[in-house]
Design goal:
2 domains; Archaeosine Trna-guanine Transglycosylase, Chain: A, domain 4; 221 residues; single chain; 5-stranded mixed beta barrel; alpha+beta
């Protein structure tokens, strides 16, 4: 597997491959990091975003590259948008610079992992149910995907675990576990179980809200 030394940006978030990540850069060390990542040709080398919790940096993260950088504000801070790419495992950490660096080993899913269509469809169905419940709670209705943002629709069509996980509101620790998995089926199974637990909770909450609005009566179908 390919290894290299890259700058690391510990954050309280988990990012998934292919997703866009907006960041506000204001600390001196990270302004330097972004500047150091910029090549003479204007393109940026990758840096890693690793989940940090209570001072502990997770062993698996995701490399990103800057695709857009805004002009600096009066205080010297600036906004960037990054595209997440490959996942990595940290082999060794270096603290000899203003910012953290790491020798990382890039990895992907297992080569023999073929997505189970039935499992994929199950997750997509449960996710659509989740989206519909959320829409009902907001006083709207989703019909055949109408009203769902284009990016969400793309994720549903492809059934990719990354896209669905990003939109289910799962806790960051679970996102980290998904990031570390090397099987699409394992991620889909994890999401299927999570959605199975979540849907009845949302249904009950929606029913309670409906009863409050109807003075304690359940509306007729």
């Amino acid at each position: 597997m390919h290894r290299e030394i890259i700058p690391l940006f510990p954050l309280s978030i988990v990012v998934f491959p292919s997703h866009l990540v907006p960041l506000h850069i204001f600390e001196v060390r990270y302004k330097k990091m972004i500047t150091d990542c910029r090549g003479d040709d204007g393109h940026y080398q990758a840096f890693g975003i690793s989940y940090e919790n209570d001072g502990e940096v997770a062993g698996v993260g995701c490399a990103v590259t800057v695709v857009r950088r805004a002009e600096a504000k009066a205080d010297g801070s600036f906004d960037i948008v990054c595209r997440a790419k490959s996942r990595y495992r940290i082999v060794e950490l270096f603290e000899d610079e203003a910012y953290l660096r790491g020798r990382v080993e890039f990895f992907d899913d297992d080569e023999d992992d073929e997505t189970d269509p039935a499992l994929q469809e199950l997750v997509k169905t449960r996710f659509r149910s989740l989206a519909d419940l959320a829409a009902q709670e907001a006083g709207a209705k989703i019909v055949d995907g109408e009203g769902v943002e284009e990016e969400m629709g793309r994720g549903l069509e492809e059934g990719e675990s990354w896209d669905i996980a990003q939109r289910t509101g799962i806790e960051v620790a679970r996102k980290q576990r998904l990031l570390e998995m090397t099987s699409e089926n394992a991620r889909l199974q994890n999401l299927a179980e999570y959605l199975e637990e979540l849907l009845p909770v949302l249904e009950a909450r929606l029913l309670r809200k409906t009863r409050v609005k109807t003075n304690g009566h359940t509306p007729e179908a």
